[in-house]
């Protein structure tokens, strides 16, 4: 069986950011100078490194070949078989070149189509269709920036940073590999990074491991997304970077970048609900679920989209607390938001990170329990009783954790998220 290769030439104009600087594996170059492979079409590319992923993105921008991009670790045997059956050539790309596996059901490519795999937080990852245009949500003039990209290649957050650099002049990019994540502040400082995007877990983990090294990075723009953003992490970053603009973004593969907040506060103003602005998403709430109507939605997802994310209205703000299927804990008939309890715990000055869940219990049905990681400089070190008392002073009795376990490291997945 033959495998179709990408067309050798393209009528597409060069992306506007093609001369922006890149740092890949410590090596400075530009998008224009990035070596690009000849890829099958359509291709599901499993990139061995961040550099190989950038090369595939550049190739798509130049030739418009149909592309799904991921790391090999996010594609298990079942997903690989699913992709082959869907007509993709599954191609591992490494320093040795392109290693293709032919599709079991070949088909014609859909020009310009990009596919994303969802994070799988609600089950098996699924494919969501986009184009370079629908993934490009920053279009106005921007101040020159050098961005850090710590995300796993092919995720929505990764594409957000990559399309910014590809399409906007003056938006330079430093990518870090997974084995560089622990020391990314040193890499960032060495290459002049002044803007960085990461999940709250990414930022918490960096503050926990070496806040002094983080403070040496001259950040002017800090962006958070991918997980619920609470006030504690915003305040901690503000303390380290008092002059930086700190933003949080609600975005997903399905609805794109839908909410952007710059005021340094968790949640967004309740006045934004139902607001209709041409070319911008409309945000509503159905019950306690966030609903988004977005011009940046994935293929086939037009109209109001139920996100599966739970919200609460507190003090004139709409707080996104977590997933509907995991945020709510039923304690003897009383509903507890795991996200609200987590925000209370992380509000303690000695708590660097927290995870809140429900555990089965007699009579009540469930009780609230938590895992925490304490800040290395905590003094005095709080014990379980101190943290329980902290929660009891701020939460209803039924929402107070009954067990709090102390972990020694903040857990993080490849997507830079924790299981919260």
UniProtKB/TrEMBL annotation:
Keywords for the protein's UniProt record, in alphabetical order: Ligase
Domain called AMP-binding enzyme C-terminal: residue spans: 343-414
Annotated TM spans: none
A Pfam entry, by short name: AMP-binding
Keyword Disulfide bond: no
Family matches, as InterPro entries: AMP-bd_C (IPR025110), AMP-bd_C_sf (IPR045851), AMP-dep_synth/lig_dom (IPR000873), ANL_N_sf (IPR042099)
GO term, biological process aspect, one: fatty acid metabolic process
Residue ranges occupied by any AMP-dependent synthetase/ligase domain in the UniProt entry: 93-281
GO molecular-function terms, A-Z: medium-chain fatty acid-CoA ligase activity
Homology family: Belongs to the ATP-dependent AMP-binding enzyme family.
Protein name as it appears in the record: AMP-binding protein
UniProt source species: Micromonospora profundi
